[in-house]
Design a protein that fits this description.
Length: about 160
C-alpha cells in the first residue's frame, strides 16, 4: 500500500507523513524532494508552478509509487496533489490510498509564517488554494486536530 497525503503547503503533510511512516515502519517520501532544481528555484522566488513545471515531477512520483508497488513495499508519500488530474496520475492502482489534509486558510497561513526552512513562501498560499481542486475521493481529515489524532484517524480508517 502507498498512502498519499495531499494538501496545500503548511497542511502538515511532512509532519503527519513522517509520524505515520514511523508508526507503521514504512518508508516515507516527501514529494518536495523530487522537484527539479528549476522548480525549487522558481518557488523560492515566489513564482507559482504551472502544469508544465509539474509534469516531470509528477512522472518521478508516479514512477516512485509504481516501483514501491512492484517491490511490495509499503510507503507514505507527502504530496500537494492539488489538482484532480495530478491525483488521477498518482492514484493509478487500488493499493494507492488518498488522504486529504484539509484546513482553513487562516490556520495554514499562521503555520507557514512560522516556517523558515522551506522554499514555499507564505505569500504563495493564495495561489495554492486557488489551484486546489478538493478531492471527492479518499479520506478527508481536518488539520486542526493534533498530529497524533490525525495519525490515529488514518490508521483506523485505513486499517493499518
Amino acid at each position: 500500500m502507498v498512502i498519499v497525503l495531499m494538501g496545500v503547503a503548511g497542511s502538515g503533510k511532512t509532519t503527519i507523513g513522517r509520524g505515520l511512516a514511523t508508526a507503521l515502519g514504512w518508508r516515507f517520501d516527501d514529494a518536495d524532494d523530487y522537484h527539479p532544481r528549476t522548480n525549487v528555484e522558481k518557488m523560492s522566488r515566489g513564482v507559482p508552478l504551472n502544469d508544465d513545471d509539474r509534469r516531470p515531477w509528477l512522472q518521478a512520483l508516479h514512477d516512485l509509487i509504481a516501483d514501491s508497488l512492484a517491490r511490495g513495499e509499503n510507503a507514505v508519500l507527502a504530496c500537494s496533489a492539488l489538482k484532480e488530474s495530478y491525483r488521477a496520475y498518482l492514484l493509478f492502482d487500488e493499493r494507492v490510498k488518498l488522504v486529504y489534509l484539509k484546513g482553513e486558510h487562516e490556520l495554514i497561513a499562521a503555520r507557514l509564517k512560522q516556517r523558515s526552512d522551506h522554499f514555499m513562501k507564505p505569500q504563495m498560499l493564495d495561489s495554492q488554494f486557488a489551484t486546489l481542486e478538493e478531492p471527492t475521493q479518499g479520506l478527508h481529515i481536518d488539520v486542526a486536530l493534533s498530529p497524533e489524532e490525525i495519525i490515529q484517524t488514518i490508521r483506523g480508517r485505513l486499517a493499518v
